[in-house]
Amino acid sequence: MEQLLGYVVVGLATGSTYAVIGLGIALVYQVSGIINFAQGDFVMLGGLTYAVAAESGAHPVAAAAIALTVTAGCGAALHLFVLSPARDAGHDRLIVLTIGASILIQGLALLVFGADQHFAGSFGGEHQFQAFGISISAQYLWCAAVAAAAATAVWALLTRSQSGRAMRALAADRETARLMGIAPLRTGLIALVIAAVLAAIGGIVLAPIQPPDATAGVPLGLKGFTAAVLGGLTSPLGAIAGGLLVGVVEAVVTGLVSSGYRDAVVYGLLVAVLLVRPGGLLVAAVRERV
Amino acid sequence: MTDAGLLRLSGLVAGYGRIEALHGVDLAVGAGEVVCLIGRNGAGKTTLLKTVAGLIRSTAGQVRLRGQDITGRSVPWRTRAGVSLVPEGRRVFAPLSVHDNLLLGGYGRSRRAITAALAEVYARFPRLAERRRQTAGTLSGGEQQMLAIGRALMSAPTVILLDEPSLGLAPLVVTEVEDIIAGLAGAEAGVLLVEQNAAVAFRVASRGYLMERGRITTSGPSATLRGDARVRSAYLGADPATGELHR
Q1: What is the DSSP letter of B218?
Q2: Alpha carbons B233 and A182: distance in angstroms, whole number
Q3: CB-CB neighbors (< 8 A) of A159 in chain B
Q4: How confident is the model at residue B215 (pLDDT cuts 50, 70, 90)?
């Protein structure tokens, strides 16, 4: 029982990174109506760039800055060169384009970084602490703290800035938002860059725990997607709750059963939620047309 | 007729895809006046307002604002130039607070301009000030209409386009909204009012246009229009003798 609590703590910490990844997916979906399947590859790109830069001797802060810049640039490029030119294609085709972008980013990462895993040290050195009878790396605390800070920053942006209000307005009523003089494309670009930054943050804090390689993106993206869908895709808070749930389920299954079942259980959860409560996706689709 | 140099439409043609809804519309609104545009459902009134606001691209003809051709301009450009549409059904941002709705009305303006406009709107509509933290979706219909108008005023518009502001409101509230509309036209601002309720339209507007199937078929002072046979037939709806039906 005590161990279970330990797994929950680990799960909440990992889950907080899935939460920010999922928050990015929900944000882009709300603003542009697109599910960005390249989000996981942004996570990979951020984590891998960070690990490679750290391995080659860069200060962790500098390595993080490089990783954030590269990933944000990649997010901007996805919007400017892929999604914007194809904006009249309809949301389903744009979603397919993000899958294409995902494959492309993965291929480019293979070319640039090779197929090997890369290792980054824990923030502030290796520390372990004992809680509920298991030993937990201090990096998990970093995960939770950084993710909480990132989520708070997004919340402040959405509620306190005109750009954030514009995003919420687009989510609520696209045509009327345009009437206010809000440019959907420009705001969509901002949302995608924020999503890419959130993904990179997730990738960076996860890098010391799960050493990234070029193929690490897809499973992480699917976890973020699961998080966003569990939350109904329409609410940032829902995505955060969904991410924490995915993390806890994953950690408890790994701890009590086997890590082999981990992904199966997480995606089983996704399928179960879609079957039992398809409300998430469907409600959003209807709302959007109003 | 007043000097109608504020907004002038000439030969305006627009529609949705291949379906043409406006077949060459001429219309003018001057500063200081409320002009109504009346007609049946489907006559093209909403299309006209959306075309002036820039939401629908015109395929021929011109929209002039204070003499300047704005036909090809984007929605944000027109908003900044002073064109503001209060859409049918009010379309407030329901999940956002009253305050956030108003701030969005000033989107793209400087912080100082927004603060000043906000003070004006709250002074004009004290009820919105009382409810500034409430989400817009929880307001009554009349309050939502106030908010939609207040939100439009946040961009300091000179051309205010109102689409069916009385729709779905209780009679007492309609009177309140009439007073608000009458107060919108000022030294520099004019109002173009689309209204199903002819009584409301003729009480508020000094003159008006009748639109039928995408064309202006008659225009003149409200008093004259009120007695016009075509206006009567348009508003009394289906005339069994002619077999004409509402769309």
Answers
A1: E
A2: 40
A3: 100
A4: very high
Size of interface A-B (CB pairs under 8 A): 59
Enter the ipTM: 0.87
Q: pLDDT for B107-120, tens place per residue?
A: 999 999 999 999 99
Domains of chain A: 2-276 (1.10.3470)
Distance CA A107, CA A129 (A): 38
Residue A45's nearest CA partner among A213, A183, A187 is A213
Convert the pLDDT of each residue in B219-238 to its tens digit.
Answer: 999 989 988 888 887 765 54
Q: In this structure, which long-range contacts are made by residues B115-120, counting pairs with CB atoms below 8 Å and at least 24 apart in sequence?
A: B117/B153, B117/B154, B117/B155, B117/B156, B118/B154, B120/B153
A42 vs A91, residue with greater confidence: A42
Angle at A91 between CA A88 and CA A93, to 5 degrees: 80
Give the CA distances from residue A10 to residues A15, A252, B159, B183, B233, in Å, rounded to whole numbers and listed in that order.
8, 9, 59, 62, 74
Residue A172 to residue B151, Cβ atoms within 8 A: no
Amino acid at B220: G
pLDDT in tens, A160-169: 999 999 999 9
Q: What is the mean pLDDT of residues B44-72?
A: 93
Give contacts of B16 with chain A, Cβ < 8 Å. Answer: none
β-pair partners for B221: B207
Residues of A with CB under 8 A from a CB of B: 159, 162, 165-166, 168-169, 172-173, 175-183
Q: What backbone phi and psi angles, to 5 degrees, belong to B71?
A: -55, -40
Other C-beta atoms within 10 Å of A68: how many?
Answer: 19
Question: Which of B47, B79, B104, B111 should one mutate to test binding to chain A, selecting the residue with the greatest count of A CBs within 10 A?
Answer: B104
Distance from CA of B231 to the nearest CA of A (A): 31
Mapping DSSP to helix (H, G, I), strand (E, B) and coil, where does residue B229 land?
helix
- Asked if A181 and B87 come within 8 Å (Cβ–Cβ), the reply is no
Q: Do B76 and A175 touch (CB under 8 A)?
A: no
Nearest by CB: A180 against B94, B95, B104 = B104
DSSP state of B54: T
